[in-house]
Write a structure and sequence with these properties.
disordered C terminus
Length: 355
């Protein structure tokens, strides 16, 4: 594993992350990473935790095993400790007395009988106390390994920011179907080690570009948004914010696109969904509003609207709760331990065309 240093920024190359691993050992470690991430998602679903809390827990899990060995620590207990810690960080704490029976019932290596499950529900039982103590001890090691660096940004936050500054050609604002697809891609990306290779802004841009490719949509800045003056590709401002040249950003977007296609395998087309429907024609009311806006304004009207025009012209900000609630179906479930087929050359090419 990479050596943990005080300058750790939690980003690794593929060679650094998998140094000394090859063949069956590499496949085993990759499977352990997928299984642990999916286990965390399952716990989050069972305990009705917000998706951002589960995502934070998965990032903690990946960071822990980026510098620690799977042979040294029980990955299932580490995953459960990550959930407990993430609940505190995201201000959605869960009591251990509730977490312990959930972990024992979902543990893929434990066959818990109905009688044993009843014992786990009893905080006074020996089995409950032992697992609780192991999780607390594991959480202390987790904090030490992470160097108490618990502040992190998730790609979903940047995805919302970018969607509020962009639209699709022919649409007044970003279509909800495209946002939902990009959001699904972001959430499923945590099953991979993508968060250890790329910054969250890059992941957000990549998922939006991949969703636009799937929906056959042309992304462009809002005419009245913060990026209205952008020339060239729509993700240029992101490259400027990160201090990265476009020529250096493009290969990262292509790599992320390829990783997602490999993750979904033959299910990619089904998950991607259908292309966007044609934009609806403007309603008579919007036409009248546009006509009213085109007429010359008096000096009093210009004075009254000068300070609020930019905000009024923007569509209402997208809410993560709205995105989740608008989904017709839950996010695709990636089976723990499943191996996706290797991507063909055309898959990588598809990623390039997404941007």
């Amino acid at each position: 594993s990479p050596v943990l240093s005080m300058e750790m920024n939690w980003y690794f190359t593929e060679e650094q992350l998998n140094q000394g691993l090859a063949g069956p050992d590499l496949e085993r470690v990759q499977r352990y990473r997928r299984e642990g991430a999916q286990f965390i998602r399952d716990i989050g679903t069972a305990m009705q935790m917000h998706v951002s809390t589960s995502a934070t827990a998965v990032v903690f899990y990946h960071r822990f095993f980026a510098v620690r060995s799977f042979a040294e620590f029980d990955r299932w207990q580490v995953a459960a400790a990550c959930v407990h810690l993430a609940g505190k960080v995201e201000e959605e704490p869960k009591k251990l007395k509730d977490l312990v029976p959930c972990v024992s019932s979902l543990h893929p290596r434990l066959t818990v009988s109905e009688e044993q499950q009843k014992k786990m529900l009893d905080p006074a039982s020996r089995a409950h106390r032992e697992l609780k103590d192991r999780l607390l001890a594991c959480e202390r090691v987790l904090l030490q390994t992470l160097r108490f660096d618990l502040s992190l940004d998730l790609p979903s936050r940047f995805l919302l920011q970018y969607c509020n500054r962009l639209t699709v050609k022919g649409y007044e604002k970003m279509p909800q179907q495209l946002v939902q697809t990009a959001y699904t891609f972001v959430q499923d990306s945590f099953v991979t080690t993508m968060c250890l290779h790329f910054r969250p802004q890059v992941i957000a841009v990549s998922m939006l570009a991949l969703a636009a490719l799937c929906k056959q949509a042309q992304v462009e800045p809002l005419s009245s948004g913060l990026w209205s003056e952008v020339k060239g590709v729509w993700y240029g401002p992101v490259a400027d914010e990160l201090g990265v040249a476009l020529d250096d950003l493009l290969p990262q977007l292509e790599t992320i696109s390829r990783m997602m296609r490999e993750l979904y395998g033959d299910n990619f087309e089904r998950i991607a969904g259908q292309p966007l429907p044609p934009p609806s024609p403007p309603s008579p009311r919007s036409k009248r509003k546009a006509k009213h806006q085109d007429r010359p304004k008096s000096s009093k009207e210009r004075s009254r609207t000068r300070t609020s025009a930019s905000a009024a012209d923007l569509p209402p900000p997208l809410s993560m709760n709205d995105i989740v609630a608008s989904a017709n179906a839950p996010a695709p479930h990636v089976t723990a331990g499943s191996t996706a087929p290797a991507a063909v050359e055309s898959a990588g090419g598809g990623g390039a065309s997404a941007v």
